[in-house]
User: What shape does this take?
Amino acid sequence: MSMRLPFFKNKQTTDIINKVLDSPPEHVAIIMDGNGRWAKKRGLPRIAGHKEGINSVIKIVRSATKHNMEILTLFAFSTENWRRPTTEIDFLMKLPKEFLHIYLPELIEKNVRIDMIGDSGALPAHTKEAIQYAKEKTKDNDGLLLNFALNYGSRFEIMQAMKQVIHDIECSKLTVDTLDEAVFSEYLYTKGMSDPDLLIRTSGEQRLSNFLLWQLAYTEFWFTDVFWPDFDEKIFEQALLDYQQRKRRYGGI
Ligand code: FPP
Assistant: This one.
């Protein structure tokens, strides 16, 4: 009996974990941080960290599909990242194409739909085309929505939305009285998407960096010191389990 008890306990624990992971957060957003430091620690150029980061992306996408998540939003390039050296920007801009070149068939097979949020206008043609191609190829899929935030900045997004709202009021498509939070949300890049339930940021930094400021109003935050290239399914599942223990009150009691 004393031999069997630990086994029984382990099985029970596994069952609980599986149960929890069967009802994951609907929408998870991730600030994938620490690629540069990961590379520096190994005496490698920063771009080696970004390249390695692709492996973590696919690991987390696989896990998200396995757990029937609805939306995974990944912060891949911010409006502030243009301040980086040109060589690093050029490299970062090639990553979506490289990722999709390798993994698009698997994403299609896994019923993943690809989309992007951000100002696509300023992206190089090859980046835009790669995303557009993947969007087109996956537009009828109804599994996980894999949402890349590329040239994304939340303040810019909100300003653009405000300008469009003013325009629509001026041309009588909208009235001030009918404008409310739900209507305003429809002017954001995330139109039609639920707000993230969980935000993860890797690498020990604990800030939002102009990411989804409107959408994260009631989101649960989860931080880890792990650099993005070391982030894997196990750590992701730990975040999901921790999320399940949170009591979301939305301002109530
Ligand atoms: C932040 O780390 C990371 C980025 C600015 C880029 C994130 C991109 C990827 C992980 C790859 C994206 C993959 C696809 C498929 C688009 P950092 O460079 O700021 O790291 P540091 O804070 O250690 O310097």
Summary: The radius of gyration is 20 Å.
